[in-house]
TrEMBL record:
<dbReference type="Pfam" id="PF20332">
    <property type="entry name" value="DUF6627"/>
</dbReference>
<protein>
    <recommendedName>
        <fullName>PA2779 family protein</fullName>
    </recommendedName>
</protein>
<dbReference type="InterPro" id="IPR046735">
    <property type="entry name" value="PA2779-like"/>
</dbReference>
<feature type="transmembrane region" description="Helical">
    <location>
        <begin position="99"/>
        <end position="119"/>
    </location>
</feature>
<keyword id="KW-0812">Transmembrane</keyword>
<dbReference type="InterPro" id="IPR016924">
    <property type="entry name" value="UCP029543"/>
</dbReference>
<feature type="signal peptide">
    <location>
        <begin position="1"/>
        <end position="27"/>
    </location>
</feature>
<keyword id="KW-0472">Membrane</keyword>
<keyword id="KW-0732">Signal</keyword>
<keyword id="KW-1133">Transmembrane helix</keyword>
Length: 129
């Protein structure tokens, strides 16, 4: 029993000594662009969601067999790069012209997420999960 107590005491000494060593910390300066980046992405996400709330886009989505609310919910789960890409396509689309290209892109994104099992928007897809 004495050897066991000595082993425990020795291991506690080593552990407590290791805990008392100073920890290293690092810091960096955050640029204004990085700090404002999160708010600008939220604005982009709101702008894309607002685009899907328009009546003409809703009608076009429904004609494609997509639930407009599911598309808006899906925008909330897109990555920042995907939201930026959609916002760029919305900006580049002529007024009232190339809405079908954007809707087709959303259709493909929703179709892929259905096949991967992340969403269940289309009844004709089967998940690979």
């Amino acid at each position: 029993m004495s050897k066991f107590k000595r082993l425990i005491a020795s291991s506690l000494i080593v552990c407590l000594t290791g805990l008392s060593l100073p920890m290293q910390a690092s810091a960096a300066i955050v640029s204004t662009q990085e700090a404002a980046g999160t708010s600008s992405m939220a604005a982009e996400r709101d702008r894309v969601a607002g685009f899907f709330s328009r009546d003409d886009v809703r009608k076009s989505l429904e004609s494609q067999g997509v639930d407009p609310q599911a598309a808006i919910d899906r925008v909330a789960t897109l990555s920042d790069a995907e939201v930026q890409q959609l916002a760029t396509r919305i900006d580049n689309a002529p007024a009232g012209g190339d809405v079908l290209g954007i809707i087709f892109t959303i259709f493909i994104v929703l179709l892929v997420t259905d096949i991967l099992g992340f969403t269940k928007v289309f009844p004709f897809t089967r998940s690979i999960r």
